[in-house]
Design goal:
heterodimer, A: about 575 residues, 8-stranded mixed sheet, 6-stranded parallel sheet, globular, B: about 400 residues, 9-stranded mixed sheet, about 25% helix
Chain lengths: ~575, ~400
Amino acid sequence: MAATKAPVKAPVKEPAPLEAPADQPIPAQPAPRPKDAPRTMRELREARHGKRAPRSKAAENVLRQGLRLERVPDPSVLVLFGATGDLAHRKVIPAMYHLWRTNLLPHEFVLVAVGRRDYDDAAFRDEVHASLEQFSRILPLDEAAWRSFSKRIQYYRCDFSDPVGFDRMATRLDEIDEEEGTRGNRLLYLATQPSQFAEIVAQVGRVGLDHERHDGGWRRVVIEKPFGHDLDSAKRLNREVGKVFRESQVYRIDHYLGKETVRNLLVFRFGNGIFEPLWNRRYVDHVQITVAESIGIENRGAFYEETGAVRDVLQNHLLQLVSLVAMEPPATFEANALRDEKVKVLRAIGTHPEGRAHEVVRGQYGPGWVAATQVPGYRQEADVDPQSETETYVAAKLTIDDWRWSGVPFYVRTGKRLPKRSTEIAIQFRSVPHHLFRDTSADPDANLLAMRIQPDEGIMLRFGAKVPGLGLDVRSVTMDFTYGSAFNVDSPDAYETLILDALQGDASLFTRADEVEEAWGIVDPFIDAWAAAGPPDFPNYDAGTWGPEAADEMLAREGHKWRRI
Amino acid sequence: MATDLIALNEPVLRWSARARNIPDIEKELSRIWAKQDLTTEIEGAPGRHVAARTSVMNLVVIARRPEIAERGAATIQALTGRHPSRTIVVQSADPDGPSWIDARIEAHCILPREDAPETCAETIHLIAGGEAGRHLSAIVTPLIIHDLPVTVWWPGEPPFASRAALDLFADADRLVVDASTWNGDGLARLKELSSMADETGIAVSDFAQVRQSRWREAIASIFDDPDYLPYLRSLRRIAVTYGTRDETGAPGSTNVVKAVYHVAWLASRLGLHVKTPLAVAPTPPSKAKGPTGRAKAPMSKGLVATLSDGRSEVAAVLRPQASDYSAGTTLRVELLCERRGSELRADVTAEAESVHVRLFQDGVDCLERHFLAARRGDVDLLAEAIESGGHDPVSVGTLDMAAQLVG
């Protein structure tokens, strides 16, 4: 994965030995080897069994060694379904503009924006320009870069239920390949309503846009979250997608995995020798993962009514963070090796039978004050049922029943209208086995390692230190690494990272079908249990507070408390 | 001491003190971070932003002249947020008088974000006179922060073979130079740099190489295309045209390090070896007449070398061209590849904000690309130079090949 990711530089290979072209005279010694001749036992065996040998080094662009990208994405067309929607304008297109601006996209690149609105290319480009002026992470816009990028954008009007529209789209994409040299490589990006995923995939399959060509034209599909509404619907969607695409062609996006600090979590764990030996039940008392949002539902009442905190955050972002914290080191840093280990964690998470209902707490915010502003309760928001039972907060105690984590609770929580926006992973280490400094004014706290994901990305380690003076007072102090102060550089947005990865065919930071299903398998029992229970006592926390008291009590029962963030 | 409100990412001087010997400098450095009032004020209320000291490296700047010291300090201040360092700017004065040291110790802080603590880093401006100025290592070593990497930035002409320099490099992890500013053609010193790097094992970052990344990206992009990739292994000629202010472009009159690096990069990546090193190309007499009616001195044909890929020879040509750009600036890189009777010619040129690539296959214009890539200033160059951890094999290979080309 890291080998192709900007700006990380991968180890540089030595130049490949030169291959003798066929038209050169053959020297007597040594005998020339055919260009793709097998070299190793594995290559010999694979050649015997008809498998293709790895690409020879002569076929690599050795001039790329040491540059920002070891390999640039192939010439390609990105077909963006839902191009007029909010996600496309806020995230996907700005990410592509930045990739283009920094020369990280191939020159033979075309963005085909697919939407139902009646635009032409010029009108759509004007709309994109206006969005970029609002949502680009670097302003003012680089107008020269915009001018060249805008020429790569084509708008294609299509109703997703119209088969003729897809027929014409397939023809148009073939024409673009001819006109622009995009070589049949296509990344289909579904940024539409989730209810349209299956329909689009089926149409795409019907017109053959999924067929990879023998001469190298690849086809991939990026699917935005939420992937399904529950385990059954996720399985159904996986089946529908699987009818058309092979799993290796499917890139399910969870933008949290593209965040710098989340990627750094893997480096932190597996690139440092001193933490991994402590990363187990022997030294870790418990783990807390918080995804707190200070905003409400932001005019998305209808969407949120059907979603809630469990489906919106716990099933995907939170469980992804849990699996990254708890996974075993993968044998290689390759997509499937990484995802195999994450799936093992999800499989080891104990589900919550009815007897453990107290280990999950749900909440809904009432009116209150956030950041010195009075805000309405959830039930007073637009497009929300005044008697809504949708949870805007969930906290759960998860257990991972494996050798490393047995007996270590993972407390996770997420909520809307909490006092501040913060995402954090905290590893609470056990206290020392014997307290030598009991006579001091306060016992030092146990060590804590906190990884802040947003805002203020960084890592903090808390430890005890002697207070200077004649006595022997011990106080907790912190060592704090803040990305912003150690590397005050322009980090790419998560979508830039992920789109570039998808164009390069690197699926490491995307979720696999079995991961998605395992995650639904963890949260479905919560939702089922709530559906079976009586109506909740909502609202049960004021906007601007840290959630319902029951969430505090859940930890207090085990002698723990939520970290003050 | 200033306690003003500060603007985002604008370095502000928060501490300044003087010292005249190393122990006093160390004492002042300790005092900076022990001071309770090293905080900002927000609307008269102190202490909202507690200054945090951050250091990711030691940066030693050797400045032989005051103006170089000032320029270096300004560059490093601009990097406070990106690479907070303990910076030691060492300047020598009057080597023949008695030994003395005069140091100014400063802490500069920036506010990375409104809600974040300030980040501060120290700078020690040190002038050493007499014998003390000749023992750089003895001045610098006690002042570096333990266990953090040490980068020496030596603008100008470092005396690579001198005892003082070698002692300093022995304690350093990385040396940053700009070979394109060296006197003459810069080639003899380039060879010294390569030998010194081999002997001491120090990692070298040369601005002259770092500046070429936009050229390299553009040239590499030609061969990203699978149709043109096979030609890469059939390179037959590399021609680099560089600007000169000398109307004859006489060899030795213009620094040609950048031009040599272009050839060296391509040769090292392609595994070529030097068959004959750079030599002056024969220049035919000019037929043009000067204002006095006498034959005008002809423009030099530059330098030529021959490389080989083991089967075929690859010609390397460095050609001067009168230009208003700084002497030694690369004006054009041309590549000629021949494969199975087919010819691919690439013509790469650059301007301040962009690089252009034109490609001709068998004489037919087949590709034109325009890369937006601005020339970079010292701040970006220094940042990139110090960001590259360890020995960058591409840079090492290029420097080694450049030394072989020099012969």
